[in-house]
């Protein structure tokens, strides 16, 4: 009854596919390279202007300052990859730092106990957010915003204006923040280890790839039989665990903790992740890029101090970087898509 | 019910399956047998329950009553994963892939070959994908991301996925709707290969010639009920249509002769880089002009550029001699243009809005009283057109999503006819709507033209083009290649122009020059 | 989707919030000394005046499927700008238009990035949130500028009310604007267009609605209102600081969503959003009067926010079960059943 007009199309030769692939590879790698390059330039420039920037103490400071943000960026990027967001991380860090401090004050608990406590508490927070997002099917931004308020409120109500003093924190815990091995402080080593493990997991394990799949197309993920809700729950639990870990490290590093530690960090973390090339619409990017983004943001802050530029500029620069990053992403995405279309059409 | 013919035992079967959504009975006591090595067609109008049946087999829906039998044993699918593990693969009309991931990852997501410590064996994944591609006879790089693949290639990826887990049952839901002829041919040869390997295939299509060309058995559904299961041998197209519709059809193409009036729409040298170029034509009052061509020839794109939803890079559109502002649908509407788009669920209607608000959306200035939107005027406007177009609805305040496809299309038509246009552009006006409504739409277009409306109709449905149009414009690879008056229009002349085989030496040369020698 | 429709037929969330608002008011009147008097109510309303003002354009944005997270930073930027100009000796009559201009330009940047570059508004405004707050620090550092002219300051403070009423000036302004915005959203073609854009942007564009222009206008208005709220905030507290209104964007969004405006766009009422703002205002006031600490108030806000998005879904699931429906093809990942 119905006839349709037909059209012959020549098959695309294999070489076409290969060149399209290398083009896309280049674009995907470009982000890590670009951020790495910017970071290198920034460090080089600052060092030339003030060689003190890269002396032993300078490097140590840089590493110490960035390690907690890098850690949080790793946790956040796992959530963002699944096309979600976790705005509660800042408040989780604050809560766990205070809780851990409260727990160890005047005792001689070991660093390990504190870390486990932090991770446990953080995981609980992450599980609550994750359960609401995945099983409650409510917008992630709204829920984690609500969780931000709730956790922050609990934290402040508990602290009630008090603070944890370094003198009450056992030395074993504090040495985690100040100690080092072969001249490299523990903190950046821990961050690097978490980063490497997460990066390897996301690349080489089925459940890691499934996180990318969920972010790339939730509908397709469901049809492919991926347990979408459980994976999202796990991503949030991971992000929470990392935030809790970061809270414990915060205590170890600073010793003195007030209730609003890491207050407002959630947006800095999201910025770092997005600058590092993890698209807020999910499915792309790597924890390596996110870590580089975090490193870049921290380095800008330190460089401004060394260059004696008003530190008030830091936030404005971060904002510009963030806008530049998403704009570049968008332009590149439009270009690659149309390039790939043309290739497949020919 | 026909007696199932002898042969192998069914690998997958439905027995007396019923499924209800709220007050709607989507399936009522439906049975179906799928045997290995057999391509089985599923026929029925839109809303007959085909999608529900597919989703039941795919594990998306659970039947309220009845059983699913897998190799004769009753099974319960808790989700798509269960159905997949049972060896059932579904290929949807528009595959849902992961655009950011590579073809190989798309195929093996969740089932990647692993090496020690449960790690993914990346090399094995790529090797297996390359094997699948060569088995299908397709040159697609396993590492290429799915973003930017044509729909045909996306379906190939889906089929490769089905092959990768040795699917025993392959369900194809209108896979050819968006394919070109050669892509369809390639798909069919792949499907025949699978049949030869012993797979059972369930094939759904609106195109009867595809059903007759590919399948050996057919099951027909009407209003969620099982009408017949029978071999296609000895069945005619008319028999099948009668089973689907339940009655003999009135004339599908009621075209009344019209006397063309003055030119109202004039398009000159319209160009959009990489899509179409140098398109010029005119449409007169009282005329139905069809824009024919292959899928991807740029017909919808021309229609959209004329209406201004896409911006043309060069050229101009005149309505009643006045040049339109480029890229402005508002200006086009003011000049008396209307566009009924191809994708009515995404572009034609706001699905969650009510019928009356959807119809009111094109006339927000007309339903005003003292500067504010008057609900009474809005309602009256909608009610008026609902009656004129014989819309079937319960309340005008209901969201359009509850209407059937044909009635949704009537709402889109109402929404645009209410603007009292001088030129109506319709893009695939009858795609995916049932045969009864199709005839109604044709009657409407014909009578509108008789009343002096200029109609530009983009259509892939060749009989519709041949019987409804006064004049046929044919596009090939972004260019207008022929203008054929009604008297000379035949399948052959239109197809020749559409495939670039027009007896126009100048054009054939140009086309030839465009093909690079590999 | 169908289940939501059935749900809204029985109970509309914005009505529920309205009822809750009245209940809180009555409960407050019955239990708390010093709640239901004009002085206290002026204070309660005055305290949320900036939030309320910004919530108006925010409601329009969310209905159109967008969000503007940069509003509080714009408030801070406007405040910092006003402070530094006042410090430099400019007339206050000149400062106000300059701040408003800054707000419009900031909104224009948001709108441009969203409509021309095609970026999601969430990402864009997280960026400008950082940028505008950063610019505020660049302009004013960590200084605080005070001593604004009393002639203007008194209009922002809730001690001064409209003659013959207990309504502070900013609240009166809000009331007028709220009525205007409600009419614009629910009774004009402009409003209908916003709902269409939020529900299905492509369909709106194909119906001849100027999608990009409308979105751009919304972002500009949002920036404009935020900068104006910045001036009110500065005058009300008598202090211009770069960190004025830090984190206020979250309270604004919380109020709007609490009022039943769908974060995914296309659904909601302005009345609901206003009820959401007032509910947060009254509740905060009531809790303060009962000596319940600020921390608990923050927790209550958070719980309300989660409840506002979760409750409708729970009701939907329950009614779904009751109707033995599986909305599987819509959103329930069936496979997640253990």
From TrEMBL, chain A:
CDD domains to which the protein is assigned, alphabetical? TM_PBP1_transp_AraH_like
UniProt-listed InterPro entries: ABC_transp_permease
Q: What is its main location?
A: membrane
Which keywords accompany this UniProt record?
Answer: Cell inner membrane, Cell membrane, Membrane, Transmembrane, Transmembrane helix, Transport
One of the Pfam families matching this protein, by short name: BPD_transp_2
Q: Where in the cell is it found?
A: Cell membrane
Q: How does it sit in the membrane?
A: Multi-pass membrane protein
Query: Where do transmembrane segments lie in this chain?
Result: 33-50, 62-80, 87-105, 111-133, 140-159, 179-202, 232-252, 264-280, 287-306, 312-332
Assembly behavior: The complex is composed of two ATP-binding proteins (LsrA), two transmembrane proteins (LsrC and LsrD) and a solute-binding protein (LsrB).
The role this protein plays is: Part of the ABC transporter complex LsrABCD involved in autoinducer 2 (AI-2) import. Probably responsible for the translocation of the substrate across the membrane.
Q: What is this protein called?
A: Autoinducer 2 import system permease protein LsrC
| Native source species | Streptomyces camponoticapitis
From TrEMBL, chain B:
Mark out the compositionally biased spans (Basic and acidic residues). 503-518
SMART domains xrefs:
AAA
**Alphabetized UniProt keyword annotations:** ATP-binding, Cell membrane, Membrane, Nucleotide-binding, Repeat, Sugar transport, Translocase, Transport
Q: From the record, give the transmembrane residue ranges.
A: none
Q: Does the keyword Cytoplasm apply?
A: no
- Entries under CDD domains matching the protein: ABC_Carb_Monos_I, ABC_Carb_Monos_II
* InterPro entries assigned to the protein according to its UniProt record, in alphabetical order: AAA+_ATPase, ABC_carbohydrate_import_ATPase, ABC_transporter-like_ATP-bd, ABC_transporter-like_CS, P-loop_NTPase
A GO molecular function assigned to this protein is: ATP binding
Q: Where is the ABC transporter domain?
A: 12-248, 247-502
SUPFAM superfamilies hit by this protein = P-loop containing nucleoside triphosphate hydrolases
Spell out the residue ranges making up region: Disordered. Answer: 488-518
Pfam families, from UniProt?
Answer: ABC_tran
**Would you tell me the protein name for this molecule?**
Ribose import ATP-binding protein RbsA 1
Source species, please? Streptomyces camponoticapitis
The gene designation is rbsA1
Automatic annotation (TrEMBL), chain C:
The record describes its membrane topology as: Multi-pass membrane protein
Has keyword Cell membrane? yes
Indicate the transmembrane segments per the record.
58-82, 94-114, 171-195, 216-234, 246-263, 270-290, 296-316
* UniProt keyword annotations, A-Z: Cell inner membrane, Cell membrane, Membrane, Transmembrane, Transmembrane helix, Transport
Question: Which InterPro entries does this one have?
Answer: ABC_transp_permease (IPR001851)
**Localization annotation:** Cell membrane
Q: Does the keyword Nucleus apply?
A: no
| A Pfam cross-reference name | BPD_transp_2
What PANTHER family does the annotation carry?
Answer: ABC TRANSPORTER PERMEASE PROTEIN YPHD-RELATED-RELATED, AUTOINDUCER 2 IMPORT SYSTEM PERMEASE PROTEIN LSRD
UniProt-recorded name of the protein:
Autoinducer 2 import system permease protein LsrD
The root-end lineage is: Bacteria, Bacillati, Actinomycetota, Actinomycetes, Kitasatosporales
């Amino acid at each position: 009854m119905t006839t349709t007009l037909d059209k012959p199309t020549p098959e695309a030769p294999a070489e076409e596919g290969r060149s399209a692939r290398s083009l896309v590879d280049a674009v995907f790698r470009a982000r890590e390279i670009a951020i790495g390059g910017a970071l290198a330039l920034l460090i080089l420039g600052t060092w030339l202007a003030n060689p003190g920037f890269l002396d032993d103490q300078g490097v140590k400071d840089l590493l110490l300052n960035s390690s907690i943000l890098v850690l949080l960026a790793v946790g956040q990027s796992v959530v963002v990859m699944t096309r979600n967001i976790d705005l509660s991380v800042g408040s989780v860090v604050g809560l766990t730092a205070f809780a851990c401090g409260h727990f160890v004050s005047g005792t001689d608990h070991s660093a390990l106990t504190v870390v486990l406590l932090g991770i446990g508490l953080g995981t609980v927070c992450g599980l609550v957010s994750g359960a609401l997002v995945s099983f409650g099917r409510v917008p992630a931004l709204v829920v984690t915003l609500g969780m931000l308020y709730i956790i922050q409120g609990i934290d402040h109500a508990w602290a009630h204006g008090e603070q944890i003093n370094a003198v009450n924190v056992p030395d074993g815990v504090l040495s985690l923040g100040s100690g080092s091995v072969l001249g490299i402080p523990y903190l950046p080593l821990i961050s690097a280890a978490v980063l490497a493990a997460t990066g390897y997991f996301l690349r080489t394990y089925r459940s890691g790839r499934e996180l990318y799949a969920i972010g790339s197309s939730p509908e397709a993920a469901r049809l492919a039989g991926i347990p979408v809700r459980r994976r999202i729950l796990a991503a949030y639990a991971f992000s929470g665990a990392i935030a809790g870990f970061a809270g414990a490290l915060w205590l170890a590093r600073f010793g003195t903790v007030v209730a609003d530690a890491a207050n407002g960090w959630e947006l800095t973390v999201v910025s770092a992740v997005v600058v590092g090339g993890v698209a807020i619409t999910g499915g792309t990017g790597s924890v390596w890029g996110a870590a580089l983004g975090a490193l870049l943001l921290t380095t800008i802050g330190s460089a401004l101090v060394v260059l004696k530029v008003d530190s008030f500029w830091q936030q404005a620069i971060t904002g510009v970087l963030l806008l530049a990053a998403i704009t570049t992403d968008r332009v590149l995405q439009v270009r690659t898509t149309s390039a790939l279309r043309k290739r497949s059409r020919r | 019910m026909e007696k199932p013919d002898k042969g192998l035992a069914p690998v997958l079967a439905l027995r007396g399956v019923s499924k209800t959504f709220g007050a709607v009975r989507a399936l009522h006591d439906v049975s179906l047998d799928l045997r290995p090595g057999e391509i089985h067609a599923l026929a029925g109008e839109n809303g007959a329950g085909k999608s529900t049946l597919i989703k039941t087999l795919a594990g998306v829906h659970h039947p309220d009553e009845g059983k699913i039998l897998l190799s004769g044993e009753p099974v319960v699918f808790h989700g798509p994963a269960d159905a997949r593990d049972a060896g059932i693969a579904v290929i949807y009309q528009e595959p849902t892939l992961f655009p950011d991931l590579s073809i190989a990852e798309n195929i093996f997501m969740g089932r990647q070959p692993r090496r020690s410590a449960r790690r993914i064996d990346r090399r094995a994944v790529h090797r297996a994908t390359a094997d699948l591609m060569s088995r299908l006879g397709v040159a697609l790089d396993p590492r290429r991301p799915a973003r930017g693949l044509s729909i045909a290639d996306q379906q190939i990826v889906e089929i490769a996925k089905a092959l990768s887990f040795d699917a025993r049952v392959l369900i194809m839901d209108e896979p050819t709707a968006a394919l070109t002829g050669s892509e369809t041919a390639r798909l069919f040869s792949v499907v025949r290969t699978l049949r030869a390997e012993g797979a059972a295939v369930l094939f759904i299509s609106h195109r009867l010639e595809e059903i007759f060309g590919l399948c050996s058995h057919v099951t027909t559904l009407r209003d969620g009920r099982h009408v017949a299961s029978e071999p296609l041998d000895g069945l005619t197209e008319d028999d099948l249509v009668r089973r689907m519709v339940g009655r003999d059809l009135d004339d599908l193409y009621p075209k009344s002769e019209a006397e063309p009036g003055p030119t109202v729409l004039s398009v000159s040298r319209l160009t959009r880089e990489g899509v179409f170029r140098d398109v010029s034509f005119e449409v007169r009052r009282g005329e139905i002009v069809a824009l024919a061509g292959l899928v991807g020839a740029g017909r919808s794109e021309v229609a959209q550029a004329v209406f201004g939803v896409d911006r043309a890079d060069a050229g101009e559109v005149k309505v009643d001699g006045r040049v339109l502002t480029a890229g402005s649908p508002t200006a086009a509407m003011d000049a008396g243009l209307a566009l009924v788009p191809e994708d009515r669920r995404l572009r034609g209607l706001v699905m969650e809005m009510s019928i009356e608000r959807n119809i009111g959306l094109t006339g927000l200035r007309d339903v005003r009283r003292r500067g504010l939107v008057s609900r009474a005027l809005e309602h009256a406007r909608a009610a008026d057109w609902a009656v004129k177009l014989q819309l079937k609805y319960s309340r005008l305040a209901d969201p359009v999503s509850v209407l059937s496809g044909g009635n949704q299309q009537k709402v889109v038509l109402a929404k645009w006819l209410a603007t009292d246009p001088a030129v109506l552009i319709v893009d695939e006006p009858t795609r995916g709507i049932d045969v009864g409504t199709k005839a109604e739409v044709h009657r409407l277009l014909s009578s509108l033209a008789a009343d002096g409306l200029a109609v530009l109709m983009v259509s892939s449905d060749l009989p519709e083009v041949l019987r409804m149009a006064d004049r046929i414009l044919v596009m090939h690879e972004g260019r207008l290649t022929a203008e054929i008056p009604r008297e000379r229009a035949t399948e052959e002349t239109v197809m020749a122009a559409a495939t670039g085989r027009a007896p126009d030496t100048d054009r054939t040369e140009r086309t030839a020059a465009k093909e690079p020698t590999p | 989707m169908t289940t939501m429709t059935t749900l809204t037929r029985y109970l509309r969330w914005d009505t529920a919030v309205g009822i809750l608002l009245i209940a809180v008011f009555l409960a407050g009147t019955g239990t708390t000394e010093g709640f239901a008097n004009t002085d206290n109510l002026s204070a309660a309303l005055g305290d949320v005046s900036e939030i309320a003002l910004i919530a108006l354009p925010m409601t329009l944005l969310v209905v159109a499927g967008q969000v503007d997270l940069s509003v509080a930073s714009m408030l801070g930027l406007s405040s910092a700008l006003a402070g530094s100009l006042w410090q430099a000796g400019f007339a206050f009559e000149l400062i106000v238009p300059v701040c408003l201009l800054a707000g419009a330009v900031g909104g224009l940047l948001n709108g441009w990035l969203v409509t021309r570059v095609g970026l999601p508004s969430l990402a864009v405004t997280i960026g400008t949130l950082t940028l505008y707050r950063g610019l505020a620090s660049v302009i004013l550092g960590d200084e605080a500028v005070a001593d604004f002219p009393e002639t203007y300051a008194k209009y922002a403070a809730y001690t001064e009310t409209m003659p013959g009423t207990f309504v502070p000036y900013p609240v009166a302004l809000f009331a007028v604007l709220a009525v205007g915005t409600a009419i614009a959203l629910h009774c004009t073609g402009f409003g209908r267009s916003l709902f269409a854009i939020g529900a299905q942007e492509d369909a709106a564009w194909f119906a001849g609605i100027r999608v990009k222009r409308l979105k751009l206008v919304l972002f500009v208005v949002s920036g404009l209102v935020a900068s104006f709220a910045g001036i009110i905030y500065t005058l009300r507290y008598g202090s211009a600081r770069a960190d004025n209104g830090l984190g206020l964007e979250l309270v604004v969004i919380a109020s709007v969503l609490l009022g039943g405006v769908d974060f995914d766009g296309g659904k909601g009422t302005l009345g609901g959003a206003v009820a959401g703002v007032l509910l947060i205002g009254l509740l905060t006031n009531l809790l303060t009067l009962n000596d319940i600490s600020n921390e608990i108030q923050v927790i209550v806000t958070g719980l309300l926010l989660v409840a506002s998005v979760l409750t409708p879904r729970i009701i939907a699931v329950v009614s779904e079960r009751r109707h033995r429906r599986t909305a599987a093809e819509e959103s329930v990942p069936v496979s997640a059943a253990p």
